């Protein structure tokens, strides 16, 4: 019998597995799952032509979909755990066979495990440089895939334990292809672990608790109460790191400012809120997605920063380079998540100063996107597929990936397979 207790207490893996089996989604859970599916499919469709696509051929099916869904940094975020939940959990359950009616429930099981593990890892884990999406993502993907495969609680717990070796990833990858690829690694590892558990591979569920402690988490923080995803999910309105959503929105809410009149910009924000923004003088579009200085410059220049704002050429615009050099960041002490406190702005233009402050940006759980905002995002991401994505349900999601997202389909380089985007 695989050990399911430690010191007389149920293991973290067993508690999460029992929750995943027992949870029955309510209407709010299912609405979140449907929104997450459409948002994830939209941002994945937007990456069909990204330079990462050829590299994803070396990943498994779930990993290809996950990496493409994350490369534009336009996918959703769980604030309490600082994890990109859907870009891992949607591919994991769509890439695993099972009863058609089980896929939404499997997604919510994976998302709930990821939210709870990420919250148990805590801000200290993220602020020390770990990429929590990968750390919590691998066991979560295993849980979702195991639910799809019909495993019981004991099997799900083994699957999560088997995913522990892949539960890592670091923030130094931000601004490179490595960020999206390591998210793909996590999704692939979780699916692989679930199949191994289904095939009878043994594992000790206590491994998940040991891992959690070793990487700075607290098993006592694992709370299985509440909705499937406690706190809900934030939807991004701009294709860049979530830490840039609030500064961009704050600039957009200022009175009109002509960029050529700006002489300096002061940004005041809690120190923790800039943790992932490691590129202060970005030279590429990918680096710019993790630059607070560029967030300000792009918002001033472009109004509503979109895909065109995060190209290499856009970052190298003389006007953008000038504004970058004028931004000064002043940190308040502390901050235990990306929306801690508020961001305050001072935009100087000659002798005038325009000031603004913002607590919650559009798309955050406190300011959830409405239907028109979501429709606009989907249309920006995939104008040719917008109508289909806007009405997509979980029952048709696997077919949508196969038929409409060939970039995430079978590896055309593998011997004996036809190119995924070749005519039938």
TrEMBL record:
Domain MmgE/PrpD N-terminal stretches: 60-208
GO molecular function: lyase activity
Highest taxon of the lineage: Bacteria
InterPro entries tied to this protein: MmgE/PrpD_sf, MmgE/PrpD_sf_1, MmgE/PrpD_sf_2, MmgE_PrpD, MmgE_PrpD_C, MmgE_PrpD_N
Spans through the membrane: none
Short name of one Pfam family: MmgE_PrpD_C
Region (Disordered) residue spans: 403-424
Coiled-coil annotated residue ranges, if any: none
Residue intervals of the MmgE/PrpD C-terminal domain: 238-386
Family listed: Belongs to the PrpD family.
Protein name as catalogued: 2-methylcitrate dehydratase PrpD
Organism per entry: Spinactinospora alkalitolerans
